[in-house]
Amino acid sequence: MTTTTSRTGHRLPPAAHTEQPWRIHDIAPDFDLEDVWALPTPGGPDDFPRLVERFVSGDVADNPSWIARTLFTVRWWIGGALGWDGDGQGLDQRVTSLRERLPADLRVTPGPDLDRLPFRSLYLTDDEWAMEIANSTVHAVSHLSWVRTRDGSYRGQMAVLVRPNGRLGEAYMAAIRPFRYVLVYPPLMRGIGASWDAAT
Known about the structure:
Helix content is about 35%, strand content about 20%. The protein is α+β, with helices and mostly antiparallel strands.
């Protein structure tokens, strides 16, 4: 499935992710697809490494919305107070890293280190990059990709896949969903677009 390039990020139907031949389908078939977003990052066929570089240098605190930054701060504070992000709740502790599911060819391309983001890189290909995170509420994957659009140009695409941890995880995802759609993603997309245009 292809989508016309846009200068603004927007949410896409699930098929925009599921109908692409991504490797993540075989690696995380038991994860739910939470979101798919078209990124405001138009470019050529070889620009995916530049998109990866922009994300590696980013930080959740870089969101241009002060409301979104406040929500992230509150989330980390609540998580610390309730022990959501404590020892024993993360990767290789509460859950096994998806690295254990990777085929041999992807094990040798883990992708860049993420010093500024609370994720662990899983694998990197020419058009696909997957990262994972886990705490007491969810085990989640952020999937970044590079897709060709109907007009022949290219752009970035981001999908979020989650496996909630029981009723706590399901309640947590339901509670934050409206905040993400209204307060987090729109300014985040504008910030990604502005950063991409400035770098270009």
